[in-house]
Amino acid sequence: MNRNRIAQLAPGIALCAAIALAAMGLQRLEEHWTGRPWLEALVIAILLGTMMRTLWTPDLRWAPGIAFSAKTLLEIAVMLLGASISFQAVLDAGAALIVGIAAVVAVGICASYALCRWLGLPKRMAVLVACGNSICGNSAIAAVAPVIGAKPGDVASSIAFTAVLGVIVVLTLPLLVPLLGLSHSQYGVLAGLTVYAVPQVLAATVPVGLVSTQLGTLVKLLRVLMLGPVVVLLSVLVGRGASAPKPGLSLGRLVPWFIAGFLGLALLRSLGAIPDIVLQAVMPAATLLTVISMAALGLGVNLKALGQVGGRVTLAVTLSLLVLIAISLGLIRLLGVA
């Protein structure tokens, strides 16, 4: 990258970075006051970016850096996430549970996508909502967005509504223990399959008991691992759908570079080639890049367009979550979790 290109990108990237740092600072204050991050930094970054975009429209000076942050920095962040994945964790969980979690994710994505389309949501937003609900909320939406070429407004609205519902789930899911007569083990599996983020799983299970927390965290981590295969599959489908098949079509054209990097880093991590000390530096960097990219997405949000789809997105996310809970309860019964 030459100096002219750097100078062109610098203002927009600096603006997004400043918003990201403010969002991360607000998350820390939130944790200090409430003991847990009800709204994660990436959600706060979107909100701050959207507020700024409402009050001020960036001119051409800022546009290149904002676009670079929203796309390229997000792709780099997704790639770096592969360093935290160990394939051994999947093997240690047992075949039945792994297959069951994969089935819940697959059925959940298909059912959620169908609901979204039935409610009239655009295809790309339907994919975002489906993957966010069925895998890991905001992180899944952020990872899938660059693969399917989602619009900033679609990404921001999907994350915003998923984040709000995620907080509601944390507060209300424990009520199902007495209502449905769930054991601590059953509730742990249910929380792991339905709650969006790992910190939220802890918030939803700690009040119930240690067994629920341990099992919920394991199931949630296995569910997060499904993000890699889903993103790769989507990249292949998008690659095929972009144009008619051509002779000599290479894997590199079907699988984006950052997905290949994600899988490569996951393999290195599984082989023990990435030590913990390196991981401790890589993951904060991935988190920071993701928050910066979310700030960029917020700066590209048109609130008028967002308001037009708000009701439908809210209904789609809510119905999708209810379907996911029903599917998860079915798996618990099928596996005979006591």
TrEMBL record:
Compartment annotation: Cell membrane
GO cellular component: plasma membrane
Keyword Oxidoreductase among UniProt keywords: no
Origin superkingdom: Bacteria
Spans traversing the lipid bilayer: 38-56, 68-87, 93-115, 127-149, 155-177, 189-210, 222-242, 254-271, 277-301, 313-335
Keywords, alphabetical: Cell membrane, Membrane, Transmembrane, Transmembrane helix
Membrane topology reported for the UniProt record: Multi-pass membrane protein
Recorded family membership: Belongs to the UPF0324 family.
Name of protein: Sulfate exporter family transporter
Species of the source: Microvirga aerilata
